[in-house]
Amino acid sequence: MSAQPEYAPAPPPAPAPAAAARAHPRRPACRAVGAGLRGDWAKALEDSRHSYSLAPLHDVVRTWQARLAAAPAVDAFLASGMDDSDGIALEDVLGPRP
Fold first, then answer.
1. In-domain check, residue 35
2. Which of 12, 22, 58, 93 is the most exposed place for a label (fewest CB within 10 A)?
3. Which residues form the domain of 36?
């Protein structure tokens, strides 16, 4: 007897490593974002385990949704070549990180 029902669709095959490497032109930046998200998520998950609350996880999701929503505007600004020396820290806009 199988643990998986016969009618369940098979998951799509994983992309080839070479295809994944070409998937995004700024792969190192994507890795850095992924590492930041993983670190934030791991800390929030540990906090949730100790407090029995999902609030830290919700905070991480909201923060990263805001960061990802702002990414196109940030990319456009950086591509424009404008002076960004008088920038505002993200923590000033979104508040301190959980």
1. yes
2. 12
3. 25-79
